[in-house]
Amino acid sequence: MAVSGIALFGFVLTHMLGNLKLYQGAEKLNAYAEWLREMGSPALPHSGALWLLRAGLIVAVVVHIVCAYQLTRINQKARPVGYKRRATIQATYASRTLRWGGVIILLFVLYHLGHLTFGQLHPDFVAGDVYNNVVVGFSVWWVSALYMVANLALGLHLYHGVWSLFQTLGVAAPRGGDWRRGIAAAFAFVVTVGNLSFPIAVLTGLVG
Amino acid sequence: MRLELRIWRQPRRDADGDFATYHVDASPDMSFLEMLDVLNETLTEAGDDPVAFEHDCREGICGSCSLMINGRAHGPEPGTATCQLHMRKFRDGDVIRIEPWRSAAFPVLKDLVVDRSDFDKIIQAGGYISINTGSAPDANLIPVPKRSADLAMDAAECIGCGACVAQCPNGAAQLFTAAKVSHLALLPQGQAERDQRVLRMVAEMERAFGSCTNYGECEVVCPKGISIEFIARMNRDYLKASLRAGSGRPKGSG
After folding, report:
1. What is the reported pLDDT for B247?
2. Are B74 and A87 in contact (CB under 8 A)?
3. A96: closest CA among B38, B157, B217?
């Protein structure tokens, strides 16, 4: 979970940072999108480097999901007879919603690929004109709402995930002075706020 | 104070069980187990089967008592085992639900008594140091840094009661195993078998229990306040040992 998680954290962070070019206008954003396809050229064919990165990402996603599924099954079997009553004492909301949050994120990613990457679910998709696709896509209020809900789920997932990976990989911190919580919160906050800003900017007319 | 108890009753290991409701008059000065003793006296006098529950030292150090009280292992008082929980923590008229530890690894033997042998198997897998016995060595013959000694003692406080497994939504035994791995790994005497210890104990733990997803519920119910910091320590030890074992040079492989 932790190792594939690190790859996915790297992705969501760079994805958010790259998308900030939305605020520099159509030309810069579309040029950035084109550069992603031209990366590695001429050593690699058009979109070659991009697809290599995507392949790595797909492997990370599959590993992450398979591990999560196996872990969930192991843990379900570990308590065949449940309690009539079991209190939740200090487990965070993020930790308790991790599994269903992950399912929400997966469904969202599938929608997002069809919406802004490949365009089948987009009302007016123009290949290469990322700026236009984003502005037109987010102008529909319920699409923006969907993106915002999914990104809040992502934020919670990241908060528990980043903290957990320190724990899993053996980076200890004393109780009371747990600096890993701060790092996890900061990372989740930056990614979530960045991602939420895009639909909000389109809906409020800041970008368009 | 008059209390209503809803207690899990199960006659045998593989029998069906259910909750039974009892009323008991208790004093706020009684311990929780003394309150159950009062109930059992009443049941015995009436010719009924008394409620089976585990207890031994009643001083909070043996780890025998094991009750899930209102959904919380060892009850509402932090840092205590059930035997050190007193009835003054409850109010007159309270309804108290009492359940056994629930885990595939801890089958119910009778009522509130569970079989915790799978903890013993984790210890048997490596929770020891192999030394030749003889006369007791002189004190301070092996220097131990103060910080290591303190941390090792914090880990060694674990009394193996199983509250961590009972409270964990995953039924994971990471806190127990981490405490047992860490208290030896922190001391010079534990170094020779350090790698094989963590590898074997974790393997045994994974065979019988669920797995940690970092909820952190275990450390709050631990009567000895063992921190999940030790789980991170165990994970680090496990990673290092796996790498060394993979390269054919594990510590203490002899």
Report:
1. 82
2. no
3. B217
Name the β-bridge partners of B210: B172
What are the residue ranges spanned by the domains of chain A? 2-203
Alpha carbon of B108: minimum distance to chain A alpha carbons (Å) = 10
Q: Does a cis peptide bond (omega within 30 degrees of 0) precede residue A42?
A: yes
| Spatial strand order in the sheet of B72-73 | B18-25, B2-9, B95-99, B68-69, B72-73
For the stretch B167-212, pLDDT in tens is: 999 999 999 999 999 999 999 999 999 999 999 999 999 999 999 9
The span from the CA of B27 to the CA of B240, in Å, is 53
Q: What CATH number does domain A2-203 carry, 1.20.1300, 1.10.1660, 1.20.5, 1.10.3470? A: 1.20.1300
User: Which residues 6+ apart lie within 8 Å of A124 measured at CB?
Assistant: A132, A133, A136
Q: Which of B71, B102, B171 sits opposite A75 (nearest CB)?
A: B171
Residue B164 contacts A, CB cutoff 8 Å = no
For residue B97, the chain A residues in CB contact (below 8 A) are 84-85
Interface touch A78/B99, C-beta < 8 Å: no
Backbone angles phi, psi at B98, to 5 degrees: -120, 120
**Four-point Cα dihedral A165, A166, A170, A176, nearest 10:** -140
Of A194, A188, A191, the C-alpha closest to A93 is A188
Residue among A80, A160, A167 minimizing CB distance to B104? A80
Q: Give the type of residue at B89.
A: K
Residues A174, B227: C-beta atoms closer than 8 Å: yes
DSSP for A59-84, written as a single string: HHHHHHHHHHHHHHHHHHHT-SS--S
CA–CA distance, A171 with A164 (Å, rounded to integer): 10
Domains and CATH numbers, chain B: 2-110 (3.10.20.30), 117-246 (1.10.1060.10)
The ipTM estimated for the assembled molecules is: 0.90
What token pair was written down for B202? 């974790």
Q: Out of A87, A95, A174, name the one closest to residue B71 (CB).
A: A87
Q: Which two tokens stand for residue A119?
A: 């365009």
What residue type is B88 in one-letter code? R
| Rounded average pLDDT per 10-residue block, chain A, 208 residues | 94 96 95 93 91 96 97 96 94 95 97 95 93 96 97 97 95 86 96 97 92
Mean pLDDT by 10 residues, chain B (254 residues): 97 95 96 97 97 96 96 96 97 97 97 98 95 83 93 97 97 98 95 95 97 96 96 96 84 55
